[in-house]
Batch of 4 targets.
Target 1
Amino acid sequence: MFELGRVEEASSDVRELRSGSPPWHVDQAPFPRTPILADTRCDVVVVGAGITGSFVAEALTRRGHSVVVVDKLMPGRGSTAASTAMLQWEIDTSLSELSDMYGFEKAAGLYRRSFTAMTDLTAFVDALGASCHFTPRSTLYLGSADTGLAGLSAEHALRERAGLPGALLDRGALADTFRMIRPAALLSPGSAEADPLCLSLNLLRTALLHGAVLVEDEVVAYDWTEGSAALTLASGPTIEAGHVVLATGYEMPDFLRSDNHRTVSSWCIATCPQSPGALWHDRVLIWEAATPYLYARTTDEGRIVLGGEDDDTQDAAEREAATPAKVARLLSKMRELWPAARYDVEYSWSAQFGETDDGLPLIGRVPGAPRMLAAYGYGGNGITYSFMASRILSALVEGEDRAWFGDYAIDRTTP
Ligand SMILES: Cc1cc2nc3c(=O)[nH]c(=O)nc-3n(C[C@H](O)[C@H](O)[C@H](O)COP(=O)(O)OP(=O)(O)OC[C@H]3O[C@@H](n4cnc5c(N)ncnc54)[C@H](O)[C@@H]3O)c2cc1C
């Protein structure tokens, strides 16, 4: 079916990430890549070997489709390697805000679907047989000066009405259990943490074992008809397929424009490993009801990973120039919240990700481009939505549609 060249090996070193270095080290066999030497055809071409493309490739090959995955970089070296991988069912947009936008019933359905995606993702990783430091965690959503006890009480009441789990902690309960001083917090089970690069590469490796072909090349053009789609590689050949899946992270092709999408930059650090007593209760994933918000988790090595200070910086040089001030602010906020730790910074990095007005991803058919499917704009809980995208896009490839897919449609209108 494919005219293939010699399989080449690529190493798994993550340190080429442009703006700084995250703490994810992958000690794995090198990745086989296969040059495409002539025009070829397959069932589905996936563009992008980040965690989204890898989830999609795994799902499609497991269902028996022939799949080519194309990435211009080494797999996982886009935003995936930069992710702090707090795998949450809670959406960046609160249930209260989402209810204001779409009404309670729809908003509750969106939250429940995200909760189910996390439950399914947990079972999926368990079956994958590569733990990648995947650890179930609760989340602690901290109130702020703007969203205090009253705001979080209202959010909690809506979540209870939607059938979602969690407890409201007032200032006293939060201080007693977590030794953190804030007006209130929501403690919710059902989330997790993982090493995002390890997970992404293991998904891709599984897809390759199921017959996928990985090509290191840049896609420079796309074409489509009612019956098939095609793309052109920078090295010359074209690949024709039943469907093309775009999973190119924050780099969207020109023909795919959405007013509901923008890219933002986020800054992160990882501290030295802490002594066990210096980490907070139950190592919950921490985020907060503030803008920009701080997010923090721990790693198996006992590091504190924290991030935030998101803004709309687009230029890599500007992002790097801003890093010292961003890191200083992150440290100062975290020290105030959790003074018990040692804040020796061993890693700092920054990267871009896509987000949308309603905090929901863009997943589905590309408007005006038959046979082209895409997944973008996941915001803070990107990886939960990468998993959901793989389920939605696999179904669409197989001609199955569901009414709820429309909630994530690329051309949906937001209030
Ligand atoms: C700092 C930071 C912290 C984050 N924290 C979290 C978190 O805690 N929890 C969470 O769930 N999410 C988090 N996210 C978001 C999450 O990491 C992303 O949603 C997710 O990694 C996106 O994966 P992706 O595969 O879609 O994109 P990417 O990982 O960016 O992969 C896209 C790939 O497409 C390739 N590509 C692009 N254009 C082309 C082309 N023309 N030809 C060939 N290849 C191409 C790129 O080389 C790249 O490898 C965070 C993101 C950042 C940046």
Target 2
Amino acid sequence: MKDLRDYIAKCEEEGLLHRIKAEVDWDLELSHIAKLNEEKKGPVLLFENVKDYDTPVMTSACTTPEKLSLIMGMPRESNLTQLMEKWVEKGKEKIPPEWVDSADAPCKENIITGDDVDLFKFPVPKFYPLDGGRFWGTSHFVVTKDPETGWVNLGTYRAQLFDKNHVGIQFIKGKHADIMLKKYQALKKPMPVASIVGCDPLLFLMGAARISAFDCEYDIAGSIRGEAVKVVKGETVDLPVPATAEIVMEGEVDAEKFMDEGPFGEYTGYYSGVGTDPRNFIKVNCITHRNNPIFWGTTVGRAVTDTHMTMALTYGSTLWQQLDAMKIPGIKSVYCPPEGSGRFLAIISMKQMYPGHADQVLTAAISTEMGAYGLKTVIVVDEDIDPWDISRVLYALSFRFQPNRSQVIKRGRSTPLDPSLPINARWITGRLLIDATIPYDWDEKPIPVVLDPDVVKKIEARWSELGF
Ligand SMILES: Cc1cc2nc3c(=O)[nH]c(=O)nc-3n(C[C@H](O)[C@H](O)[C@H](O)COP(=O)(O)O)c2cc1C
Ligand SMILES: [Mn+2]
């Protein structure tokens, strides 16, 4: 899969695409259709007739494991944990991107610079009534480069449309683009950026993934695809952008300039604060796009939508990778439910091999880079329980977990988006570690109730005779 068009074609082939030909307003109507569709776990939507525009808009591209499987190049029936397994495996290798000439890059079919830049020419949706405006960047990612090392980063940071050539950008502290921006600030230079809308959806997953600092998301995408991502140099920025991108917005961010941004209906299902906040913005100097470009957005908002599925896959995989890197034996699988947006709750299945092993896994999870930021509840279960099988997890919580013995509360770094904390005190959170395993060190373990296998076999042979 090379681009968004391949993905749309693949979804159509698989019966997972719905084209909407009736006119739909970009102002709330489009996002609300997408949101209701995502809540029903519906198909990928292609809005072909957006009011005031010729450009179609795609939404709901990642809402189900089926869609994510297509993106990951896995069998359609794969579950999230299986997709994460592939992510963890392939994430160990890197295939750097391959440069192509502008002549071979469809994203250069149209080049708009200077005064001609007008972001209002694109059908940028407004998502929720209390949002501060229209959001250019939801299913997009921002490409930046470290001015010292040349490390290239892809990150998905929401981008609000301000006027014809300015968009707000929210780099939360410590995110990779934020780290880079601080370096440009020290050099007293603006940071060149490119925002990519519409591409091989794997690249969007990469933008939303917590790949380690200094690693380039293009290299990991190459490894998962088994083929280098084709990139071309921006027109006005020295950054690699996907050659087959639908729309590339090029510009710069001055660390010392701010405009009022937000609010935006977050993936927690709440607004992150009250009203607007001063934030950095992109001054747009150039737009390049394919002929008949396709715009792409996602609804965010309350769970479960596209965004939650994306984060369950990418954040969950990162947690698993980082546990792997700690070389703790016995970790069977990891599941970070989309209902918790892949980041507030983690369930880990393990084979216990020594006393205290389960405690080690619990504390390790919150000591990873991923788990040390925002993760609030970690549950470990024995290897006979699949972490994605929630009824089995509830079984372990009911019959193996003992509050007197096997829960610990810690404190740590919170995400400022967590609505369970007061709006002005969101830097520190509690973390609940729950051991729902049978203690390894018990000499006498509970005796399980099992059926007699011979009797079971006999009954199976008589099953239809018994009138079932
Ligand atoms: C739809 C969507 C919107 C997001 N918006 C933001 C945002 O506004 N700011 C932010 O820092 N992270 C946001 N994230 C999370 C980041 O994409 C994620 O943390 C990613 O790891 C950032 O890339 P980085 O690790 O290279 O910094 C968003 C994710 C998604 C899927
Ligand atoms: Mn990164």
Target 3
Amino acid sequence: MLVTSLSMGLAGCSGSHSILDPAGPAARDVAWLWWGMLIGFGLVFLAVVALWLAAFRPRDRAARSPGQAYSPGQRYSPDEERRLGLRWILGGGILLPGVTILVLLAFGVPTGQRLLPLPLPGGEAPRVIEVTGHQWWWEVRYPDDEGEVITANHLVMPAGEPVDFHVTGADVIHAFWVPRLGGKIDMIPGRINRIRLQADTPGVFGAQCAEYCGAQHAHMQLHLEAVPPEEFEAWLAARRVSPPEPADAHAPARDTFTEQCASCHRVAGLSLGDVGPNLSDIGARATLGAGTLAMEEGAIARWLAEHQRLKPGNRMPAHDQLSPEALEALGAWLETLRP
Ligand code: HEC
Ligand SMILES: [Cu+2]
């Protein structure tokens, strides 16, 4: 039993969502703070237990009779007892918490500082990635002089350099949290919050909405990938050009899309809808429905047919008016949309 619960607890210490497995400077500070607090408060706990046990130690109270406040056999006089009590209140009630909070601040303030997008020593401004939380998906924008790139639910960032994330909410409050890279930050409609994160080495990191935002909050995951800077530039460049005209076989599916889906979804060069995720590179994403389904052959058609069962209440209407064949065809065409 103990072994099972211990191993279950420890299993949380690694993996794509663990703050105890930091992969960047801000996250490392957070992890140190966590361990420091665990050790510090562990010691406080032990001290309290020791005092508690000491309080039960049998004393010589024989000489004291009921109703009598003080008897000659007692160890301290009432005056001494009052002074002792005062000492406990000053020491345990003011001094100890004061020192504890000061120590916490000494660690916590620099950690908070590291998450702030302060000017870099060289005066160079880090790259900015804008992330908007929607019920229940992530919009990701790369503002750029050469043309803005927009994707969804799949964030690619350069590894080994700081990146400033400018986050906001489109409908309700969400929170952007990449546990292995740093602390969380609220995404508040009408406001832009900023956080600086850095991934030391390339890798895939889990991110999750960290502020309850409605029924499908749990199905609001972000696939975050850090890649070498050259690879990142190539990834961006590939997305600045529209996908090519589809082969004739996919033309009917594209027409269905223009009729049924274009008002909500953008496909570069074809439609401008912005109610739902941009689908211009949907074929190259890792998941569908913000982590609801893994991307594989046939997954998009499955999403189109069953999304209200897979992610009940999500903001995309069911398309029961379309035949299963039409949905299959749409899925097959969308899978070809990859840079
Ligand atoms: C009323 C607006 C609306 C219409 C119309 C609509 N969608 Fe969506 N779609 C959405 C929203 C919102 C989401 C995000 C759902 C979620 O994950 O919570 C979505 C998600 C998707 C996804 C998954 C995207 C991803 O990154 O995970 C695909 C694929 C998709 N829609 C395709 C279509 C197709 C094809 C049609 C037309 C048959 C269509 N949609 C019609 C709003 C719409
Ligand atoms: Cu949420």
Target 4
Amino acid sequence: MINTENDKVEIQDLHLQAFGEEEGPVIEKMTAEFLLLPETISINVYRGLRIAGNILFSPFKLDDHPEKKCFLLAPLGVLPEHQGTGIGKELIEKGVYYLNHIGADAIFVLGHPSYYASRGFVQAKVLSPHHELMKHPEAWRMLEVKPGSMEGIGGASVAAEPIMDPMFWDTSGRPE
Ligand SMILES: CC(C)(COP(=O)(O)OP(=O)(O)OC[C@H]1O[C@@H](n2cnc3c(N)ncnc32)[C@H](O)[C@@H]1OP(=O)(O)O)[C@@H](O)C(=O)NCCC(=O)NCCS
């Protein structure tokens, strides 16, 4: 859970590789900024001595419900040579376990709808930051960590600074 400076470099490089040439550099920069914040939760899965996968969670605020303890999942990455072997699933499970332990209500994510649907994430009613850019609402998903905690909860939201740039929320370039 506590990352050394070496770990941080390895994690940044991992996301650079996982997301590839086009997306990788901006995700690497976002990761570096997240890892500077003490409130960021970082979880690794190792294969041998190497970090094979990493997931970050950051505090996520609901405008109308400041009492809710929510987190944004971003990024989630697995080294290309280890993709499809269950590490992504393991990282999400570890994250949910840890967030449950610290009393979290829910996790939000903007990602591949089918991937997150198969891990229990449902379409979110809370609006994403820069909601006006959300062309694929099915990609904006939520998982209750505390069952029932998000019933009837909606409204606007704000993510942590490293991911507030509108480019992260513009889904217009994604396939239908
Ligand atoms: C997406 C990613 C995190 C998944 O981790 P993983 O360890 O490869 O995935 P797992 O082995 O846990 O799960 C494999 C399952 O995910 C599916 N899957 C993998 N990548 C997917 C993608 N891009 N879109 C949809 N489904 C995907 C597989 O088909 C498989 O489905 P199954 O469980 O029904 O058989 C990983 O492939 C990755 O780092 N990709 C590049 C970075 C990225 O796009 N991250 C953002 C995630 S929103």
